[in-house]
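cron nightly-structures :: item 1 of 1
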Amino acid sequence: MKITLPFAALTFAALLPALASAQTAAVVNQPNVTTAAALQLADRATHMAAAQHMNICIAVTDADGHLLAFTRMQGAYAGCVEASIAKATSAARFAINTITFYDLARKENLAIGTIPGILPAVAGVVLKHDGAVVGAVGVSGATDLTEQKLAEDVAATFN
């Protein structure tokens, strides 16, 4: 059987929609917090912290743990910069609040902190939209309880 070029082109053109739908079926859109919303959350956090006379660092990441917004308040310790980012990153990448890792490390004496990316600390809180993790906030620069409460309060203002 001899296939002519026009016939082959028509056959290929007819298959294109099927191929395209097969390819898009293998791709998933991941919901993420927007940059605008991340900036608003960082701003809210600084206002909440200032009202409590706290000087903190706040980091907001997308669902993959990549930084979208960051604020270091005047007077916040330099070491809190990386800590707030690490808290948000850990919460987002594992889709779990970091206080869970903290409690596991304390109560069960697990070496959970040796697993790459897991940070057993307070104040890394996931952001959810319609049940899906879309990002996280990380707070550092105060006591454990006040950091955790502030991170939870900021996350609660999200959508």
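cron nightly-structures :: done
The chain is about 50% helix and 15% strand.
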